[in-house]
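User: What would this chain look like folded?
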Amino acid sequence: MLSPEGPTLRELAVQALSSVERGYDLLAPKFDHTPYRTSDRVLDAVASALASMGPFDAGLDLCCGTGAGVDVLSRVCRESVTGVDFSAGMLAVARERVEPQGPAVSWVRADARALPFGPVFDLVVSFGAFGHFLPRELPGLFDQVRSVLRPGGRFAFPVVAPPRPGSPGYWTLLGFDAAMRVRNALWRPPFVMYYRTFRLGDVGRGLARAGFRTDLYALPEFGRRPDGSPRVRLVVAGRLP
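Assistant: Here's the prediction, encoded as structure tokens.
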């Protein structure tokens, strides 16, 4: 897929007709060669922004996949970094790919909706995972994140501005979500992956209800849209007492 090392169309079709967990187990060996992996440019921009807010002691990469976010946490955390994901295949690749440099790194297989940790983290990050949660699941997810953060801890993730209505990007995402809804109406098990359900306004209200104070930071590396708004923001939600 867009790369000789990426998955073939046949492999993607098999993955798309699987459950989310099984699909990512199959995709894992080639995941880093697909557009689904968060770009180094985004990772570097987030790491730079977080460095100015830290340092932090313990960090958690939520839905870590092959460990790109763990690399970010290793730059801004002093003591320990943990990656959590429910795909055994993705974790296996992460263990092989990530070479600990600095803080100790550990990997845990678990569902983000039922995290097996106490309030032991100062920073939780996540990259590109929220489309795998239905809107009704987000309040529970935010509650889980709050439960593993120490008082004053932060939950950070980048958000890309949505494409303008009528633009090619708009129709692409709309078409993808429509195709996914048809697929899930006709085929079991479902594969939850939607691009247009994670809206910044709704997310801010959900974080507030879960006990967070949210700040937005423009990532200057990506510039601004014609209306002056940032192309990419970093959401930083601080856990309230």
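The mean pLDDT is 88. If you want, I can go into more detail on any region.
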